[in-house]
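tokens incoming
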């Protein structure tokens, strides 16, 4: 079953993260939607994701995952050596989420912000939900 990643389409770091995942997901396991898009908003609502969630969101079946848990679950499906990052699950979740939150809180300042969401290249457009 494919999983959906909801991301901040205005965030340069988030955009680069999506591109990173696409190139390391040879089986096209993940689909993507911007949190700012109509479909992204509807999916977040369908999964009862709290509106103020400041995180990448992984939709899997009937569940959603955020922060470090989402990252680790995404890494499980990526090509080697990136799936090895799941070994960091040994850290207590509050530490992993603290690191995630620190980056998330500073992502615009560190990496910049776009005025609009990216337009996917033709060869990956089918991986983005509209």
């Amino acid at each position: 079953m494919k999983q959906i990643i909801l991301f901040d389409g205005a965030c340069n770091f988030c955009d680069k993260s999506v591109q990173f995942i696409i190139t390391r997901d040879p089986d096209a396991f993940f689909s993507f939607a911007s949190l700012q898009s109509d479909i992204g908003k509807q999916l977040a609502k369908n999964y009862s994701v709290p509106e103020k969630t400041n995180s990448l969101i992984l939709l899997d079946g009937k569940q959603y995952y955020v922060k470090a848990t989402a990252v680790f679950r995404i890494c499980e499906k990526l090509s080697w050596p990136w799936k090895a990052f799941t070994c960091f699950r040994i850290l207590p979740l509050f530490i992993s989420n603290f690191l995630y939150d620190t980056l998330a809180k500073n992502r615009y300042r560190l990496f910049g912000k776009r005025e609009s969401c990216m337009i996917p290249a033709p060869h990956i457009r089918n991986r983005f939900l509209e």
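note: The mean pLDDT is 88.
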